Amino acid sequence: MKKIIFIIGVLYVQSISAQILKPVKLSFSSNKIDSNIYEVHLKAQVDTGWHIFSQYSEQDDGIGPLPTSITFKQNDMVAIQGKPKEVGELQEKFEEVFEVNTKCYYNEVVFVQKVKTKTNKPVILEGTITYMACKDEQCLTPQEVEFEVVLN
Predict the structure, then answer these.
(1) Residues of 121-152 as b/e, b for ≥16 C-beta within 10 angstroms?
(2) Which domain holds residue 29?
(3) Rounded-to-integer distance, Cα 68 and Cα 73, Å
């Protein structure tokens, strides 16, 4: 009897893990644009039917989806220049799940952060991007992904 319960438990766990959705694929890179000035690119490719939210989605009294947020770990060799820009086709959408208007991206968005290094040697910049992915009938829990890019 214990073996049967164990086998059923294993099959249940396998069926749940097979259903884990990952509709957003992230990639990270940097481009040198001037002496010690770089653009850090955080690219989100979003599966068809899904979308993620702008960093600048307004929430009314905390109601609504979690806006995308990007944080960089403190690095004395790197100065962050302003806020990340969003490059993509921004759309406004009434989010039925939350019953609020939102700003979101379908297909692809690139978050671009300008930084300046204080050395000519390669520097590793680390950070975290947190985002929430939704489609019409469901939203996934917010995902937090750590990243690092080499500036050289």
Answers:
(1) eebebebebebbbbbeeebbeebeeebebebe
(2) 22-151
(3) 17
In a domain, 105, yes or no: yes
Task: Enter the pTM of the model.
Answer: 0.84
Beta pairing, strands 37-46 & 24-34: antiparallel
Give mean pLDDT in consecutive 10-residue pieces for the chain, a chain of 152 residues: 39 45 97 96 98 84 86 98 97 87 96 97 97 93 97 94
Q: How far is CA 32 from the centre of its chain?
A: 22
CA–CA separation, 148 and 152 (whole Å): 13
Q: Nearest to residue 130, comparing CAs of 61, 81, 51, 68?
A: 68
pLDDT of residue 136: 85
Q: What is the CATH number of the domain that holds 26?
A: 2.60.40.1250
Q: Is residue 12 part of a domain?
A: no
5 domain residue, yes or no: no
pLDDT at 61: 65
Kindly report the number of other CB atoms within 10 A of residue 100's CB atom: 16
What single-letter amino acid sits at 79? A
Total domains in the fold of the chain: 1
